[in-house]
Fold this sequence. Notes:
single chain, 7 strands, alpha/beta, two-stranded parallel sheet, 2 helices
Amino acid sequence: MKRRIQIADDSPVQEPMLPLINIVFLLLIFFMIAGSLQKLGPFDVNPPASQTAESQPEDTIVLWFGKAGEVGIDDQKGTLENLSSFLPVDYIGRPVEIRADRETDGVKVVGLLKRLQELGIDKVQLMTAMEAEQE
């Protein structure tokens, strides 16, 4: 025996909204997980161009170096003199990736490399951006 649902002619028919809301939230979660998230530094840098690219290990310390000589790690920033105060406690033996601005003077980058060497850091990489024609 089939039951028939009668809808009164004077009331509007309402479509169920729950499946639509579920789909929207599933898409939102999918794009949040699938999108690549990147940590932002304490200030903006415009890296120099390169021909090749390599991935960094997960324990890499990302060091930001601005064209005015400011240095930053995570959300902290300062100068070369107080660099050791905002390095992680377990920085010895971990690689450091330098994200320097392309307009930074080479002498300042060499000074940064000497300071890192004084602190006992021996694995350093200079981050660059892929050239437009290589992407």
